[in-house]
Design goal:
Elements (H helix, E strand, L loop, with lengths): L2 H9 L5 E3 L15 E11 L16 H17 L3 E3 L2 E4 L5 E6 L2 E7 H12 L7 E13 L2 H10 L1 H12 L21 H4 L7 H4 L7 H16 L3 E6 L2 E6 L2 H5 L10 H11 L1
Parallel strand pairs: 1-7
Antiparallel strand pairs: 2-6, 2-7, 3-4, 4-5, 5-6, 8-9
Helix pairs in contact: 5-10
Length: 272
Amino acid sequence: MNSQKKLTDLISIDEKCEFHGSAALPLPAGFKPGSLYVRTHIRLETPSYRQISNHSPRFPDDDSRDTFYEQLEAILTDANMIVDGTYARTFGEVPEQLHMHPDDLNGFVSFDRMGRIVEAIMSGHSSASTLRWIDVYAICEQLDDDEKLMRLNHYREALAERLLTMAYTGKRKVYRDVTSDGLFYEYGAIYKGFPGLQFVEHFSRGMGGCPVSAKFEQSLINDLINQGLLHERSRDDRLWHRSSMKTELGKIRKGDRGEFWSVAMRVAENER
């Protein structure tokens, strides 16, 4: 079942919900859906916040500001979030967090909780604000390790190509840092493509990343190095990489060309 359809069914606002990047793409066949979370901006209309100026918005007085935050805090508290200042959080197995602002609620929250919050706003539980629309930038899933590894291997060749593209410089002495953020950084390779690789560990602050993804990425880098397609050097206590150029790839004997040689050649030809 398409996770986007389930999301808009839950909150019944198809015309007010826009999906971006990988969130606009359906899961490939064979992927077993997990528990859903979203990276979202819930856009709000708060008239009092722009009463004085639309270009330099601010509340006209303390009462207007207090009303906005008190009403929003009540909605988030009813959704079982703990409000601290301008942030609302949960501290369960998958930590969630939303930042409160007169223009939007933004952050990482469970699928079901977002539905409850949106319904409360639409039902008029906040007289200070109304719903404008919702932007969903990632549909994230909580999965077991076996499902994660199956999905990563499904994209193995495409991820190898992305790594080689990221590391391509066209010069023997120029290397790039492709590991600091890597493939699974929130705004990295998984943002625009690779539906189904948006694991909650990549987006939920406090989870410390995804060990399965990190191990897979390092193994993929090692394979590319061992096949002579990626070069590594250490400098300033960091690892730097560059992809092999077309002339270097051509020197690899046909019998020694590994599974990603043609991918590396395609990258070298396209990036020249």
